Each structure stands twice: as C-alpha cells, then as structure tokens.
Amino acid sequence: MEKLQDVMPVVKSPAASSSRLQLFFKKLMQQKVLLLMSIPFVLWLFLFKYVPLWGWTISFQKFRPAKDLFDQEWVGWKNFHFLFSDDSFYRVLRNTIVMSSINLVLGFVTAIVLAIMLNELRNIMFKRVVQTISYLPHFISWVVAANIISSALAPEGVINILMTKLHLIDQPILWLGKGNYFWGILGASEVWKNVGWNTIIYLAAITTIDPSQYEAAEIDGANRFQRILHITLPGMKSVIVILLIMNLGNILESGFEPQYLLGNGMTVDYSENLDIFVLKYGMNMGNYSLATAAGMFKTVVSFIFLLSANSIAKRLGQSRLF
Amino acid sequence: MKESSAKARYNSVPDKVFDITNIVFMLCIVIVTLYPFINMFALSFNDANDSIRGGLYFWPRVWTWDNYNYIFNEASIYHATFISALRTILGTVVSVFCTAMLAYTVSRQEYVLRKFVTIVAIFTMYFSGGLIPGYLLIKELHMINSFWVYIIPGIISVFNLIVIRSFIEGLPDGIMESAKIDGAGDFITFMRIVLPLTVPALATVSLFVAVSQWNSWFDVFLYNSSHINLSTLQYELMKILQTSNTAASSTNVGDQFAAGQSGVTAVTPTSIRATMTIIASLPIIMVYPFLQKYFVKGMTVGGVKG
C-alpha cells in the first residue's frame, strides 16, 4: 500500500514523485534491519497463504494429479454446476448450518448464564477455583474429548448407567449410533468443552461496570434478580452484540474435528458437514477439483457474511470488527 | 461498619437461597468437568481385567502400573510421545520467536513497509486456500513424510501477531527511544529490550501455540500417516478411538482379543484408551492453571483489538 501511494502521483508530476520515490528508497535503505526482520516472513506468507489461494484455479479445471500444474484441462464452472446439482451437497450444507446455529445459540446462552452466576459468587477463592477448572476442557484436544464423550455415551457408559438408575430409560441407548441424537450430542459436547473459556470475555465486560450502579440500585431496593437484569446484562450488551454479529459471519464454520471424530457410518447423514465433504471428495476419492470448488464456495460465502456482519455492526453504532 | 451492613443486606432469605443454589450449580459444573478425567485416571491405574467387571467410578480398585508400563514398552507409542514433545517445544519456540519479530517490525511507526506488511498478513485471516490447495502445496514442496511439516507451515500465526503487536504498541515509547540513542539497532532492541518486556504476551501466545501443537493430529493424518516414525500421541489415540467406534457393538470381544494377545500383562483397549487419555492431557493439566492470569489478559486484548 505504501508503495502504491508513492507510485500513484506519477501521472501528475513526474519530478515530485521521483523525489518521493527516492526518499522512499532512501528510508528503506536506512531501515535495512527492519526489512531483513520482516521480509522472510512476508515471503513465507506469500508461499503458505497466497499460493494456495491461486490453487483455487483447480476448481475450474479437470484436475489430474499426475499431470503438470500448468498442463490441466480447463472446464469453466462445470464443477460448480455438479456441486449445486448434487443432493448430498445440500444435505451437507444443511448439517453445517444447523450445527453451527445450535452451537451459536447454546454457546451464547450457556456462557452468558455461567458468567453472570460466577459474578454472583461471593467467595472469591471458590470463584477462582471454579473458573480455573472450567477452562480445562478448552485446552485438551478434541481427540481426548471425543474419547471421553464416546466412553461416557457407550452402552455401559456413565450416562446410560445414570439414566437407568434414575428410571429415565429402561435399557441402555446407543447414543452415538442414532442420527437424530447427533446434533444434540454435538451441541452438548461443544458446551462442555468451551463454556468456561467463553465466559472470559463476558466476565471482562462485567468488571467494567461501575460498582456505584449496584450500590445505587440496592439503595433503591432492587433485589438480586433485578440487579442482574437491569445492570449486569445491559453492561454486557455491547460485547454480546459484537460477538453475536461476528459469529453470524462464521455460520459456515461449524467445526471439523468433533464431527469427524464422533460421527460414524450410522450417523453420517447428520454429522457430515462442509469440511468433511471436502476431505471425503478430495482426499478419499481424489476429486480435487470438486473438493476445491466446495472449499472455495465456503470461503467466499463466509467472507460475504462477514462483510455484511461488519456493516451491520457499523450501522448499529458498535465499533467495527476489522 | 461497612462489612457488617453488606452482610446484613445479603442475609435475607431469598438471597441465601440464591447463594446456595448458585454454589450447588457451580459444584455440578465442577463435577461434570472433572469427572471424566477422574474416571479415566481410575481406569488407567486399575487392573485391566478387574476394570471389565465395571462399577469403577472415582478411584482405582486394584492399583497397578501395568497399563503405563505396557504403553511405554510399546515402541510406537513411546516414540509418538517423543515426537509430540519435540514438535511442541520446537514448534512453539520457532513460531513465537518469528511471530514476535514480525510483530516488532509492524509496531514500528517509522517503518515504511509497515502498512504493506500488516495488510498482507491480515488479509490471510479472511481468505484461506483451503484443504486441497494447501495439501498440493505441501506435496510440491516435498514436505510430505517429513517432520518439518509440523513446524514450517505454522511459523506465523496472524492472530498471535495482532496480540503481540498490540502489546508492544502499549509499551512506553521512551524505552525504545533511549535504546536507539544508546546506539542499539533494531535487532538488538528487539532481542534485549522488547522480548523481555513482552513476556506476558509471549506467555499467552506460547500457551496457545504449544497447546495446538501438542493437540494436533490432523496434519499427521493428512501428511505423515504412512510414516509410523512421525506419528504423534494424539494421532495414536485417534486411531484407538476410530477402532473402538467401528467395534462399538463388540467391545467385549475386543477386550478379550487384546487380553489374549498380550498374555501375562493383560491390558485391554479400554484401559489403554484411558491411560493414553491421561498421558495426552496430563501436560496440559499441569501447565495451564499457572498461565491463567496471562491468557485471560491476552484473550481480552486479542478479543477487543483483533
């Protein structure tokens, strides 16, 4: 961008701009060390982040891995036509949107409730201990979490034992073997793993609330629920709105690991999302072009969502996201 | 007596009911969070054949080290743990150092390429080539079946770049100015002045990078799955999970099979799975509580400015 601004005035006055260009290079030479400290990583960014973007061209080709990269057959929008006429693509799209919506709603509600309840704890030591423990599942891998979840939900697992003892069910249920349980299990798993972590930002928002507001409310005779409803929640409002908008922009990001690790042949109609679709078509079936087309669709639509989310945030008077 | 009046205010009956309900609610959260780990711990230290009887919840019934002995005598798992540790340490050091260096350059107001580098970096947060083009690139670079595929593609994290940059920009200007007056170049200033002062941000970022290195299995699966010497602990655990998923309905058959196979030591898939779960989560359980004050701060800075 810097360069661009320096080059633009060329049309207007060559003399002035050449001196500006000279100044630019003179400055650049003085900043040799900064240049050496950053250019290797800029090259790295180009290689690992921008070259794959150029790889999007594969989705307009009939890509054959055996052939040279520049020797591929171009097929126009054919892969996209195939994608949009494929029923399984719409099923995968439905799963993606449903699962990320469930995660969005459950994630928000549980984190906000937990943050408020944590804030209401009066014993600071106890609060700290609960917080620390609640962060734990966020840091462990999905592999470990999936192991835990699948053994808890196994026929002889703790969930079935507990529910049988409470007479909620007569015999053990194969929870991970039925498609219509999958979305619920996934939502609950996401909550288990991330609810503690998600409270961090809300608790930070709560600490910015002026304590004198609570004192004033107390003098006016407001009880605990009224104080939560009229002071704590409004104090969190701007953070909630901004995170909500930001997450609406990520509606096609429903995650990959939990679905891949917890899903199986019996639940595939519900567990398969866009990312798994890309993996399946690309790596398992070797149809690189179709998989790239699906991946590109996801990135472009996500970006459009994010741009709209950003402009909504601006219109609502919240600070911009980027 | 402000304190006693505060106490009196909170001592009404509805307030007490609320407090007690809240504490019970929190205890439920603590149990739901910790129980799975306690149960895995109990299974991993319990005699494998005894575990088949079931009814094991909080504490081992028949104490034994057999499960751990078995796993660490298994050459592949022993090696996988080593690779996991190596990629975590090397990957974290390289990524944090390089990201901090780039963050320093883009925090320098006088740097003429500052805007250019920042935009080049931030753009990549919104557009990524995706799975297939990324895979083809790694293939073209001949990094398949090599250890370096764990380190090099993760050198710069743009999110971490923003966290560190915001932190450096929050440092008092005078410090870097005086270093310059003393004749220190940018690299020396970065190494001697900026790095030590940036420790709180570096601690946060290191935790994020180390956790994601330790936890990752997908790159192993994608690039190195045919090369057992490059496997990691998480990938081995993932393979166990996949096997137990496909054999979900016939767990006991699997148990007996493994018991028959290993003869005297008698371990079962269930106990191996529990033991590996504990090994895979133990380093994290031991580290993250001590970095809590750093990552809570880092999260809120990153969240607001990112």
Structural write-up:
The complex is a heterodimer of chains A (322) and B (306). By secondary structure, chain A is mainly α. Chain A contains 15 helices and 2 strands. In chain A, helix 9 crosses helix 11. In chain A, 33% of the residues are buried. Chain A has a two-stranded antiparallel ribbon. Chain A folds into 3 domains: 1-30, no CATH class; 40-76, no CATH class; 81-315, MetI-like (MetI-like fold), CATH 1.10.3720. Chain A has helices at residues 2-7, 14-30, 32-54, 78-84, 87-120, 124-139, 142-152, 158-165, 179-207, 211-219, 224-249, 257-262, 268-271, 274-284, 288-315, and strands at residues 61-62, 73-74. By secondary structure, chain B is mainly α. Chain B has one domain (69-306): Orthogonal Bundle (MetI-like fold), CATH 1.10.3720.10. Chain B is 73% helix and 0% strand. The relative contact order of chain B is 0.12. Chains A and B meet through helix 2, helix 3, helix 5, helix 6 and helix 7 of A and helix 2, helix 5, helix 6, helix 7 and helix 10 of B.
Short description:
The complex is a heterodimer of chains A (322) and B (306). With 322 residues, chain A is mainly α. Chain A is built from 15 helices and two strands.
Report the oligomer: heterodimer
Helix proportion of residues of chain A, in percent?
over 70%
Number of strands of chain A: 2
**CATH structural fold name of the largest domain in chain A:** MetI-like fold
Structural class designation of chain A: mainly alpha
Averaging pLDDT over every residue of chain B, what do you get?
84
Radius of gyration of chain B, in angstroms, nearest whole number: 25 Å
SSE ordering of chain B: HHHHHHHHHHHHHHHH
The helicity of chain B comes to over 70%
CATH architecture assignment of the largest domain in chain A: Orthogonal Bundle
Tally the beta strands of chain B.
Answer: 0
Main β-sheet of chain A, in a few words?
A: 2 strands, antiparallel
Strand order of the largest sheet of chain A: 1-2
Terminal CA distance of chain B: 45 Å
Structural shape of chain B: globular
Instruction: Count the DSSP helices of chain B.
Output: 16
Main pleated-sheet profile of chain B: none
CATH superfamily of chain B: MetI-like
